[in-house]
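Re: [ENG-882] Designed sequences occasionally contain unexpected residues at chain ends

Forwarding the minimal case from QA. C-alpha cells:
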C-alpha cells in the first residue's frame, strides 16, 4: 500500500478548462442558497432563479408517453436503439411545424437530440479554429463550450440602449462563428426582422456561420421572427437549434432538434454531413417513448395545450413586470420571453443584489454578472414559478424595492 502513496497521473489534461470560471453560474447560486437555508432553516424561500418549468406535461403528451410505454412492453412493437438522427415520424412533424411561420424545412434537415444545451455544447466538435463572436450578456454554455475547445471568443456589448440586441455595425468583415439567441436568455430581448436581416447579410458577405438558438420562440407575440429561416438568405449561413423544454415542458423529459439546411457548406463539405457523422459516433439517439411524446406536442391539440402553459407563465411575467414598472425600474423581457432582465436598484452589483434579495426577502434570482461582463448591474427573474410563488415574490419585491 505504501508504494501507492503520493502517486500522480502523468497524463496530459485539457488545460483549456483552466480558462473557465471556477463555478458554473447555477452551481454557485445553489451553493449560496444552501448555505443560507442551513443558517435559516425557517426561511420560506421563493425561487425565481433557474429557468426550470413547473407546470406538468400536457394531457396529450402524457397519453403519448403511456401509449409508447405500452408498445415497449410488447414484443411485436418493442424498439431498441433509436435512430441517431431521430425517428422519421418526429422529423416530419418538426418540418411540418415550421410551415406555420411559414418556413420550408425538409425532414432530412432535422436532427433530433436530447436537448438544445447538448447541441449548443456539441456543435463545436464539427467546427475548426474559428474566431467566435458572442453577444454579451449571454447563456454561459455558448462561451464555456468554446473555451473548453481553446477557441478565441470576442464579445459584442449588449446594453439597455441597443435593447440588448447588438448588430454587426462596425465589426471587422471576416469569417466568424456567430451565436444569436432570440428571444434572448437572459435578457428576454427579441430581434426584429430588420435586425436579423443585418446579421444574415453580414454572415453571407463574410462567409460566417450563425448558430441561432430559438429555444424560446414559442413565447413570441407580435411581428417578430420565430425562426431565422424566415429571413431571406439564412439557409446559406445559419444552423438553428430549438427545443421542447420550454415550449412543452420537457426540461426533465429531454428532446430538442437542430436544423442543418442542405445549402450550408464550408468549401466542398456540407455541415449536415459533419453533424451526421458526429452524432452517429457520439450519440445513441433519443428514446422512442420521448419522441412519441414530442410528436404529440406538435399536434394541433398538443400545441393548444402547450400554449395554455405558455400563457400561464406569461401572466406570471406580467405580474412581476407590473411591480418593476410601479417602482420605475428599467427592464427588458417579460413580453416575448419568460425572463425579466432588470437594472439592479441604486447601482448595486449583481451578486450584491442577489445576497440582498435573499437575506431581506428570501427571493432567489440570477445575478446578471454570471452571464458576462455586460450583465454586471443587472438581474434575471424567471416567470416559470407557480402562480402562488410568483404572486408572493411580487409582493416581496414591491415591499423591498
Amino acid at each position: 500500500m505504501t508504494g501507492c502513496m503520493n502517486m500522480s497521473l502523468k497524463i496530459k489534461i485539457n488545460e483549456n478548462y483552466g480558462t473557465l470560471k471556477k463555478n458554473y453560474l447555477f452551481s454557485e447560486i445553489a451553493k449560496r442558497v444552501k448555505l443560507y437555508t442551513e443558517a435559516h432553516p425557517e426561511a420560506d424561500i421563493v425561487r425565481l432563479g433557474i429557468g426550470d418549468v413547473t407546470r406538468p406535461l400536457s394531457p396529450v403528451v402524457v397519453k403519448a408517453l403511456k401509449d409508447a410505454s405500452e408498445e415497449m412492453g410488447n414484443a411485436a412493437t418493442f424498439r431498441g436503439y433509436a435512430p441517431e438522427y431521430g425517428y422519421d415520424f418526429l422529423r416530419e412533424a418538426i418540418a411540418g411545424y415550421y410551415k406555420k411561420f411559414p418556413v420550408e424545412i425538409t425532414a432530412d434537415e432535422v436532427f433530433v437530440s436530447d436537448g438544445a444545451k447538448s447541441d449548443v455544447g456539441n456543435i463545436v466538435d464539427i467546427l475548426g479554429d474559428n474566431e467566435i463572436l458572442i453577444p454579451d450578456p449571454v447563456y454561459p454554455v455558448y462561451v464555456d463550450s468554446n473555451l473548453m475547445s481553446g477557441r478565441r471568443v470576442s464579445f459584442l456589448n449588449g446594453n439597455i440602449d441597443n435593447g440588448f440586441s447588438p448588430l454587426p455595425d462596425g465589426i471587422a468583415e471576416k469569417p466568424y462563428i456567430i451565436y444569436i439567441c432570440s428571444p434572448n436568455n437572459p435578457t428576454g430581448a427579441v430581434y426584429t426582422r430588420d435586425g436579423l436581416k443585418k446579421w444574415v447579410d453580414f454572415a453571407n458577405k463574410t462567409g460566417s456561420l450563425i448558430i441561432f438558438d430559438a429555444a424560446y420562440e414559442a413565447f413570441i407575440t407580435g411581428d417578430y421572427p420565430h425562426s431565422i429561416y424566415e429571413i431571406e438568405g439564412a439557409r446559406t449561413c445559419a444552423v438553428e437549434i430549438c427545443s421542447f423544454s420550454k415550449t412543452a415542458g420537457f426540461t426533465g423529459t429531454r428532446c430538442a432538434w437542430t436544423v442543418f439546411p442542405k445549402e450550408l457548406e464550408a468549401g466542398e463539405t456540407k455541415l449536415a454531413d459533419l453533424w451526421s457523422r458526429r452524432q452517429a459516433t457520439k450519440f445513441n439517439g433519443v428514446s422512442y417513448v420521448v419522441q412519441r411524446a414530442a410528436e404529440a406536442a406538435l399536434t394541433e391539440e398538443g400545441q393548444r395545450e402547450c400554449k395554455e402553459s405558455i400563457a400561464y407563465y406569461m401572466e406570471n411575467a406580467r405580474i412581476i413586470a407590473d411591480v418593476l414598472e410601479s417602482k420605475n425600474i428599467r427592464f427588458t423581457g417579460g413580453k416575448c420571453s419568460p425572463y425579466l432582465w432588470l437594472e439592479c436598484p441604486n447601482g448595486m452589483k449583481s451578486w450584491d443584489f442577489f445576497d440582498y434579495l435573499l437575506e431581506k426577502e428570501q427571493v432567489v434570482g440570477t445575478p446578471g454578472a454570471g452571464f458576462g461582463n455586460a450583465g454586471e448591474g443587472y438581474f434575471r427573474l424567471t416567470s416559470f414559478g407557480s402562480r402562488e410563488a410568483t404572486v408572493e415574490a411580487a409582493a416581496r419585491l414591491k415591499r423591498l424595492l
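QA comment: On inspection the terminal residues look reasonable. The chain has a mean pLDDT of 95. Proposing we downgrade this to a documentation issue.
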